[in-house]
Specification:
Layout: E1 2-10, E2 15-18, E3 21-24, H1 28-33, E4 42-52, H2 59-72, E5 78-82, H3 88-98, E6 99-100, E7 105-109, H4 122-133, E8 139-144, E9 147-150, E10 154-156, E11 165-167, E12 174-177, E13 180-183, E14 197-198, E15 206-210, H5 219-226, E16 229-234, H6 249-257, E17 261-266, H7 279-285, E18 290-291, H8 297-310, H9 314-321
Parallel strand pairs: 1-4, 1-5, 5-7, 7-8, 15-16, 16-17, 17-18
Antiparallel strand pairs: 2-3, 6-14, 8-9, 9-12, 10-11, 12-13
């Protein structure tokens, strides 16, 4: 019988109505009372590591979760993390980078409605997550609405529907139907034989800038003085405005010359970016900026934080960022 550790961090799944609306209240032990049947196929312990709305998630908490998994790694066959949906994809990406070469599953789940609600999806999601945590696979995964998503490829697309998450620019790993797991992609989740590698570090001093028509280039002066990394969400295939008084390229070069890592991704969720395609992108590449290709926004933000946590030297940061990890980008 597999031995699983449930790590509770709060979120909607553990929320109850309070004086100012929904807030985390249900403990880890109480969550398990809703899924008693899982004890027929696994032994499960629990720990209340955090108890927050995931809006309050921060890199320091990602480090806390990763360190707890490292501490307990040899005592359990799998891990389930209950988490709020709003920043779940960020946490999944963070753990994918900080914990590599896994020979067991780390599964993140949550709910769109509290587990105590009449029409909750929390019970189903938690049972599915525990079920998948007993599989002989390795990696970080989001399990939600009967789907298994690679940790570097999850994005929340819906605020209320039960099918909140999608796998972006990548196949689903598996589907769970009536307790049966039907695999769709196996090669990326084979158990590592090299043993886990924990690279637990983060630099939170990163800014995400979303381009809008008419944005003043002077915003980059503020960023230059405050941040060590910048992710620009550009349009379409990717590019930076360069005409007239809205030309952002000179200010962008000032950032790079100062040693600030600049990553360019796209606001378009599907199919990724290609800065080599248009003039606006090729000019940006000469700055030079770091392309994010088909990475999710969440993965790009977190990977830059993780890279800067390891080095402040721009060449090394670019090297870390452009090294594919768990298929976080493929084109």
């Amino acid at each position: 019988m597999k031995k699983i550790l449930l790590i509770a961090t709060g979120g909607t799944i553990a929320s109850a109505i309070g004086a100012e609306g929904l807030a985390p209240a249900v403990t880890a032990n109480k969550l398990l009372e809703y899924v008693e049947d899982v004890k027929s196929y696994c032994q499960i312990d629990s720990v209340q590591l955090l108890n927050i709305d995931s809006t309050n998630m921060k890199p320091e908490y990602w480090i806390k979760i990763a360190k707890h998994i490292e501490e307990k790694y040899n005592k359990y066959d799998g891990f389930v993390i209950t988490h709020g949906t709003d920043t779940m994809a960020f946490t999944a990406a963070a753990l994918s980078y900080m914990i590599q070469n896994l020979d067991k599953p780390v599964v993140i789940t949550g709910a769109q409605k509290p587990i105590s609600a009449k029409e909750t999806d929390g019970i189903k999601n938690l049972i599915d997550a525990i079920k998948f945590s007993c599989e002989d696979v390795g990696g970080v995964f989001v399990v939600f609405d009967r789907k298994v998503i690679l940790g570097t490829r999850a994005t929340k697309l819906r605020t209320r529907s039960y099918n909140a998450f999608e796998s972006i620019n990548y196949p689903y790993i598996a589907f769970i139907e009536d307790g049966n797991i039907k695999y769709n992609k196996l090669d990326i989740i084979k158990k590592s034989e090299d043993g886990p590698k924990f690279i637990i570090t983060m630099c939170s001093n990163v800014f995400l800038l979303k381009l809008i028509p008419g944005l003043e280039p002077q915003i980059l002066d503020y960023i230059k003085d405050k941040y060590e990394g910048l992710i620009i969400e550009s349009y379409g295939s990717g590019g930076i405005p360069f005409e007239d008084e809205k030309n952002m390229l000179p200010k962008l070069k000032e950032l790079v010359d100062k040693g600030i890592a600049v990553v360019v991704t796209t606001q378009v969720i599907l199919e990724g970016s290609d800065l080599s395609l248009y003039e606006v992108g090729q000019k940006a590449l000469k700055t030079p900026v770091i392309p994010a290709f088909d990475m999710t926004r969440e993965a790009a933000v977190v990977k830059l934080m993780w890279a800067l946590g390891q080095s402040k030297e721009l060449k090394r940061v670019k090297e870390i960022f452009l090294t594919p990890i768990k298929d976080d980008f493929i084109y």
